[in-house]
Amino acid sequence: MTIIEPTYTYIDNKFHTNRAVAFSTTIEAIDSIENLKTKYPDADIIKGEENSILYPGFINTHVHLEFSANKTTLQYGDFMSWLDSVIANRDRLIQECDNKVMLKSCNDMLESGVTTFGAISSFGKDLETCAKTPQKVIFFNEIIGSNMAYVDALYSDFLNRLDESKKMIDSGITPAIAIHSPYSVHPVVLKRAINIAKDEKLPLSAHLLESPAEREWLESGEGEFLSFFQKYFNTSTPVTTISEFIKSFDDIDTHFTHMVQATNKELEYIAQKGHSIAHCPRSNRLLGCGRLEINKLIELDIPFSVATDGLSSNSSLNIFDELRGALMLHYSTSLKELSNLLIKNITSTPAKILRVDSGEIKESKSADLVLINLPDRPNSLDDIALQTILHTKKVDRVFIDGKEI
Ligand code: BEZ
Ligand code: FE2
After folding, report:
1. 210: annotated active-site residue
2. Which of 105, 141, 113, 155 is nearest to 309 (CA)?
3. For site-directed labelling of 196, which of 52, 117, 161, 249 has its Cα 20 to 30 A away?
4. Which residues surround ligand 2, an ion (CB under 5 A)?
5. Is the distance from CB of 356 to CB of 116 less than 8 angstroms?
């Protein structure tokens, strides 16, 4: 048994003083340090520094490790220029992205306190890394392919990757399914993949309504995607509509990534069906996709996470860099309310979305814990979320299932 005594403890989405936490692999008790010492006289005691805060381990629901080799190669500013640059450089970027590069990505997340992440895996190249990394991984095997001529081969490759990930459950992997997007997945395989997720109760995710070009293509078959599909796929009509695609997920709660270009009506539908959203603010800004109206999500009570996306559309996988990005992008949302919401959206909210047994400091939850030191005393408990976001580059200590990493 270990007892950790921080200055502040994040419980029930609020900050508290005089709350120490006793844990083994799970959280055993939360009480004053005196009571815990009496209850567990033989426990090891960790006393936090003067302005320390104990958080549950952070959760990054959406990252693409297989694109970790990108630094300055890809074109930013506009979605279609970016997509063209991905296609032009994909082979080299994938080849350069070996286990060492991907483990560094995992470690960068870990240093920022991320103890669980959702890996969107396009090729299965990241499976070994995800099995090796100390973090828990929701491994989203991605299905792609809009052209009927290739979908069977791509689908069978997807099934093989899914099977491989199922063999890694003992290494901290949770098998899951990701749909690449409405424009890139044929409805025939879309339905098959969704049915697997339903039958096997696997977490399900999909990129949706990321760019203005995507919306225009799905609505009218026009715009920048038209020449893209003519050039690369010799087709000139979209395989689905926005409403047909969204309706395919009616009976299974799904984690939709981006949704920047969604209308109010579409967001209302998402709310009604119990779906959630992965919000990637820096990726959206860098790819010219716009700004997600988070005030609408708050109004509609749509759960959303804050996630980094991959290094193909970001400059770091540090979750606090992402929160600082969100804080600046959403300039009209109340600063303190937004700070508190952002912390919630990398802890308890994504834990519920991904159905993992962490993300909260609560008895019987996994002892995934992060200790952070503020450089000075915060003015009030109400300031701690904001000051944590502003001042944290790296966390001080990390525990996963009670084991210090
Ligand atoms: C496709 O397979 O249809 C596709 C892949 C990437 C981008 C767009 C479409
Ligand atoms: Fe993504």
Report:
1. yes
2. 105
3. 117
4. 309
5. yes
Of 334, 244, 254, 256, residue with least CA distance to 292: 256
Specify the residue with its C-alpha closest to ligand 1, atom 2. 145
Which of 146, 158, 312 most suits a substitution to test ligand 1, by most atoms within 8 Å of the C-beta? 146
Output Rg (C-alpha) for the chain, integer angstroms: 21
Here the tokens at position 111 are: 């240093």
For the chain, give me the number of helices (H) and strands (E)?
A: 16, 18
Domain span(s) for CATH 3.20.20.140 in the chain: 58-354
Among 226, 233, 235, 236, the mutation site with the greatest number of ligand 1 atoms within 8 A of its Cβ is: 233
Q: Which residues make up the CATH 2.30.40.10 domain(s) of the chain? A: 2-56+360-404
pTM summary value:
0.98
| CA proximity to 56, closest of 102, 96, 143, 116 | 116
Q: Among all ligands shown, which has an atom nearest to the Cα of 207? A: 2
| CA 153 to centroid of ligand 1, rounded, Å | 14
338-392 pLDDT, tens digit each: 999 999 999 999 999 999 999 999 999 999 999 999 999 999 999 999 999 999 9
> What is the predicted pLDDT for the residue at 303?
98
DSSP state of 57: P
CATH class of 2-56+360-404: mainly beta
Catalytic residue among 28, 66, 142, 210: 210
Give pLDDT tens digits for 206-220: 999 999 999 999 999
β-bridge mates for residue 403, sequence order: 400
| Helix (H) or strand (E) run with residue 188 in it | helix 187-200
Task: Mention the CATH class of domain 58-354.
Answer: alpha beta
Q: Whose CA is nearest to atom 5 of ligand 1?
A: 184
Question: Within a 10 A sphere around the Cβ of 50, how many other Cβ atoms?
Answer: 9
Q: What's the CA-to-centroid distance between 385 and ligand 2, angstroms?
A: 27
Closest CA to 278 of 295, 303, 315: 303
Residue of 62, 60, 66, 68 whose CA lies nearest to 311:
68
Nearest-atom number in ligand 1 for the CA of 150 is 2
